[in-house]
C-alpha cells in the first residue's frame, strides 16, 4: 500500500492540471458571449487583461484546446480594436481565430470571428469588406438561431449600407427588423427602425415619406414615454417640414422638441433644436429671432463640447448678423467658424491618413483572408464531391436493394400464388368430393324415401281395393280388421311424411334454432303421455324416472321431435309386455337424456351405421311396423344443431339405450 505522503505527491500534478483547466475555461460561446466580453473589456484594466489573456492563450495551445485558443484570440482582437486601437494586431488575432474556426468547423465561434473582422474593417471605413463579413455572420447565425444577435447584425448591416449610400439595401434591412419588432411586440425596436427609415427617406429628399415614417416612430416613443427619443424624432420631422417650406409645421415641431429637452435639461438636445430654430428663422429672414435662439444654441453646444454643433452655431450666427447688417459681428463669427472648421478638418485628415495606413496594413492580411476563403471553398468543393460520390454509392446500393427486394417480393408472391392455387385446387377437389357424397346421399335418400313410401302406399291401395271390390262378401270383423290395418298404414305414412318434412326444413335452413329456456322434464312427460296409447297397443310400459323440473336453454321444438322419435323407435322395437325407461343424468357441462328399452337390440354393424343417411338400416318392428331410419337421422341433425351429440348402446336380444346431450350453458 502507498503511504499518504506518496499519494499526495502523485495526485498533486493531476490536481494542478484540473485546477488549470477549470481556471482556463472561459464562458461557453453563446449569444451573450460578446456582450459579456465587451463588459469585461470596459471594466478591467487593459494591460492586465491583455497579459492574463495571453497566458490563457498559451495554456490553451499547450493542451491543444483549439476551441479555447480561438476564443482567446478573438478576445485579444477585441481588446486591441476597442482599447489600444492597434488594428494591425487586432486583424492578426482575428485572422488566426478565423483560420482555427474554419478548420475545425466551430460555427458559433466563426460567427464572432466574422463579426470582429467586420468591426475592424468598419473602423477604417472599408464598408465593402465590413458588409461582406457582416453578411457572412448573418448566414452563419441563421443556423445557430441567436435571435437577438440576428437583429443586431441586420441593424449593423443597414447602418453600413447607409454609409455606402446603398439606401435600398439599408431600407430592406430596416424593414426586416421592423417586421420582426411588430410580430414580437418590441415597441422600442419598432420605433428605432421607423426612425431609421425616416432618415433614409430624408437623405433621398422623400420628405413626405420621411414624415410618415417619423410619425410612426413618434407615436411609439410617446406610448413608451421615451422623452429624449420623442424630442429627437420631432426635430427630424421639423427638418423635413423645413425642407418642404412648411414654416408653421416646422416651427411647431421644433417648439415641442425644445420644451421636452428643457424639461430634461439636455445641453446636446437644446443645442440641436436652437440651431434648427436659428436656421429656420434665417431662412424666413427673421434675423432678430434667429440670433436670440442661436445664442442659446452656442451656449448649449459649448456645454455639450460638440465641435460640430459649435461650428454650426458660428455659421448660423454669421448669417444672422449679416442679415441684420452687423457685418463686423458676422465677420467675427465667420472667423471663429473657419478656425474651428480648419481644426476639425485637420483632425479629420489625420484620422483619414491613419485609416488609410490601417487599411493598407489590413490589406496585407486580406491575402491571408482570401487564402482562407479559397481553402474553405476548396474544402467545400471536396466535401461536395465526396458527398456526390457517397450519394451515388448510396443510390446504387439502394437500387440494388430495391431490385433484390423486388425479386424477393416476386418470388414470395409467386410462392403465395402457387400455395393459393394449390389450396384452391385442393378445395375444389374437396368440394367435388363433397358434391359426389351429397349426390350419393341424395340418391340414397330418394331410394329410401321411394322404398319406404312404396310399402304404406301399396298397403293402402290393397286395403282400399278390398273394401271397394269385396265389401258385400266381407264380414263386420274382417272390415274392422282391414280398417285397423289401414289406420296403421296411414299412421306410418304420416310419421314418415312428418319426419321427411322436418328434415327438409332443417336442410333448407327454414328452422331457426333459437335457443330459449324451457323445462326439459315437461317435454319428457308430454311425449310419454302422447305415446302411452301407442305403447299400450303392445302392452308396453313407459317409465319416466325424472320428476324434478330441469331448465335448459335450447330449441324446444327440435328437442321435442328428438324425444318423440326416440320413444317411438323404442316402442317399435320392444316386444309385447316390454318396458321403456326415460331419464336424465348430468355432468358439469351437459344434461343427458336417455331412452332405454328391453327390445330386440341391434348388432354392432347396425349400431355403427344407424345415424348415417347413406346406409339402409330400416327394419320391421316387433309387430311388423314399417320404418325408414329417417327419424334417427333427423334426431342426429337436431341434436347437433343444439350443440349436443347423440349415441346408442345396444346388444342383440337385450335391448338398446339411445341418449343425447344438451349443453348446460
Written overview of the protein:
The chain is of the alpha+beta class. Among the domains are: 29-126, Serine Threonine Protein Phosphatase 5, Tetratricopeptide repeat, CATH 1.25.40; 179-265, Serine Threonine Protein Phosphatase 5, Tetratricopeptide repeat, CATH 1.25.40; 267-334, Tetratricopeptide repeat domain (Serine Threonine Protein Phosphatase 5, Tetratricopeptide repeat); 518-663, 2-Layer Sandwich (Heat Shock Protein 90), CATH 3.30.565.10. 76% of the residues lie in helices and 6% in strands. The protein contains 22 helices and seven strands. The strands form two sheets. It has a five-stranded mixed sheet with strand order 2-4-5-7-6. A two-stranded antiparallel ribbon has the order 1-3. The longest helix has 143 residues, at 327-469. It is rod-shaped. Residues 1-27 have low confidence and may be disordered. One of its GO terms (molecular function) is phosphorelay sensor kinase activity.
Could you name the key traits of this structure?
665 residues, alpha+beta, Serine Threonine Protein Phosphatase 5, Tetratricopeptide repeat, five-stranded mixed β-sheet, two-stranded antiparallel sheet, rod-shaped
What is the CATH class name of the domain at 518-663? Alpha Beta
Shape: rod-shaped
* Rg over alpha carbons: 59 Å
Q: Tell me the distance between the termini.
A: 81 Å
Number of strands: 7
CATH T-level fold name of the domain at 518-663: Heat Shock Protein 90
Task: Tell me the series of helices and strands, N- to C-terminal.
Answer: HHHHHHHHHHHHHHHHHHEHEEHEEHHEE
Q: Strand share of the residues?
A: 5-15%
**Which strand order spans the largest sheet, edge to edge or round the barrel?**
2-4-5-7-6
Helix content: over 70%
Query: Uncertain spans, ≥5 residues at pLDDT below 50?
Result: 1-27
CATH architecture of the domain at 518-663: 2-Layer Sandwich
Q: Please report the number of helical segments.
A: 22
Largest sheet: 5 strands, mixed
Amino acid at each position: 500500500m502507498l503511504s499518504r505522503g506518496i499519494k499526495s505527491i502523485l495526485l498533486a500534478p493531476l490536481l494542478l492540471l484540473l485546477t488549470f483547466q477549470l481556471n482556463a475555461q472561459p464562458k461557453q460561446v453563446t449569444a451573450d458571449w460578446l456582450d459579456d466580453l465587451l463588459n469585461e473589456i470596459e471594466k478591467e484594466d487593459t494591460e492586465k487583461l491583455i497579459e492574463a489573456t495571453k497566458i490563457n492563450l498559451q495554456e490553451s495551445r499547450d493542451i491543444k484546446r483549439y476551441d479555447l485558443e480561438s476564443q482567446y484570440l478573438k478576445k485579444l482582437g477585441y481588446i486591441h480594436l476597442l482599447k489600444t486601437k492597434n488594428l494591425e494586431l487586432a486583424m492578426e488575432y482575428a485572422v488566426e481565430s478565423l483560420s482555427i474556426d474554419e478548420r475545425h468547423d466551430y460555427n458559433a465561434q466563426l460567427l464572432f470571428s466574422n463579426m470582429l473582422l467586420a468591426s475592424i474593417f468598419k473602423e477604417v471605413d472599408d464598408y465593402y469588406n465590413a458588409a461582406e463579413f457582416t453578411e457572412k455572420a448573418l448566414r452563419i447565425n441563421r443556423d445557430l438561431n441567436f435571435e437577438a444577435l440576428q437583429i443586431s447584425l441586420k441593424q449593423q448591416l443597414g447602418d453600413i449600407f447607409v454609409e455606402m449610400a446603398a439606401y435600398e439595401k439599408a431600407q430592406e434591412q430596416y424593414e426586416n427588423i421592423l417586421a420582426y419588432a411588430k410580430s414580437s411586440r418590441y415597441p422600442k425596436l419598432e420605433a428605432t427602425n421607423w426612425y431609421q427609415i425616416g432618415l433614409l427617406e430624408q437623405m433621398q429628399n422623400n420628405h413626405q415619406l420621411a414624415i410618415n415614417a417619423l410619425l410612426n416612430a413618434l407615436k411609439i416613443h410617446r406610448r413608451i414615454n421615451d422623452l429624449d427619443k420623442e424630442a429627437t424624432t420631432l426635430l427630424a420631422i421639423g427638418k423635413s417640414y423645413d425642407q418642404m417650406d412648411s414654416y408653421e409645421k416646422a416651427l411647431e415641431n421644433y417648439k415641442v422638441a425644445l420644451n421636452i429637452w428643457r424639461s430634461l435639461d439636455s445641453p446636446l438636445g437644446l443645442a440641436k433644436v436652437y440651431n434648427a430654430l436659428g436656421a429656420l428663422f434665417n431662412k424666413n429672414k427673421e434675423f432678430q429671432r434667429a440670433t436670440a435662439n442661436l445664442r442659446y444654441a452656442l451656449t448649449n453646444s459649448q456645454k455639450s463640447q460638440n465641435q460640430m454643433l459649435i461650428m454650426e452655431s458660428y455659421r448660423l450666427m454669421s448669417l444672422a448678423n449679416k442679415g441684420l447688417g452687423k457685418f463686423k459681428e458676422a465677420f467675427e463669427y465667420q472667423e471663429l467658424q473657419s478656425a474651428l472648421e480648419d481644426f476639425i478638418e485637420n483632425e479629420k485628415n489625420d484620422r483619414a491618413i491613419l485609416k488609410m495606413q490601417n487599411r493598407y496594413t489590413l490589406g496585407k492580411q486580406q491575402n491571408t483572408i482570401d487564402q482562407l476563403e479559397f481553402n474553405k471553398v476548396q474544402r467545400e468543393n471536396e466535401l461536395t464531391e465526396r458527398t456526390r460520390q457517397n450519394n451515388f454509392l448510396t443510390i446504387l446500393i439502394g437500387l440494388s436493394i430495391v431490385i433484390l427486394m423486388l425479386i424477393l417480393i416476386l418470388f414470395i408472391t409467386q410462392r403465395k400464388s402457387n400455395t393459393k392455387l394449390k389450396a384452391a385446387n385442393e378445395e375444389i377437389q374437396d368440394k367435388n368430393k363433397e358434391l359426389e357424397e351429397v349426390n350419393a346421399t341424395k340418391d340414397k335418400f330418394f331410394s329410401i324415401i321411394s322404398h319406404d313410401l312404396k310399402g304404406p302406399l301399396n298397403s293402402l291401395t290393397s286395403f282400399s281395393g278390398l273394401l271397394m271390390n269385396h265389401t258385400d262378401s266381407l264380414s263386420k270383423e274382417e272390415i274392422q280388421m282391414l280398417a285397423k290395418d289401414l289406420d296403421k298404414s296411414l299412421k306410418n305414412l304420416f310419421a314418415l311424411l312428418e319426419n321427411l318434412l322436418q328434415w327438409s326444413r332443417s336442410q333448407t335452413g327454414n328452422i331457426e334454432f333459437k335457443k330459449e329456456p324451457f323445462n326439459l322434464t315437461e317435454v319428457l312427460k308430454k311425449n310419454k303421455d302422447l305415446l302411452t296409447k301407442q305403447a299400450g297397443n303392445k302392452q308396453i310400459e313407459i317409465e319416466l324416472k325424472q320428476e324434478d323440473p330441469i331448465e335448459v336453454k335450447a330449441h324446444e321444438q327440435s328437442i321435442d321431435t328428438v324425444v318423440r322419435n326416440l320413444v317411438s323407435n323404442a316402442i317399435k322395437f320392444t316386444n309385447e309386455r316390454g318396458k321403456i325407461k326415460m331419464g336424465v343424468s348430468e355432468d358439469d357441462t351437459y344434461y343427458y337424456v336417455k331412452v332405454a328399452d328391453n327390445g330386440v337390440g341391434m348388432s354392432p354393424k347396425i349400431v355403427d351405421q344407424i345415424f348415417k343417411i347413406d346406409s339402409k338400416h330400416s327394419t320391421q318392428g316387433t309387430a311388423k311396423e314399417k320404418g325408414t331410419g329417417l327419424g334417427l337421422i333427423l334426431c342426429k341433425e337436431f341434436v347437433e344443431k343444439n350443440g349436443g351429440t347423440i349415441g346408442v348402446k345396444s346388444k342383440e336380444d337385450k335391448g338398446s339405450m339411445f341418449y343425447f346431450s344438451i349443453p348446460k350453458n
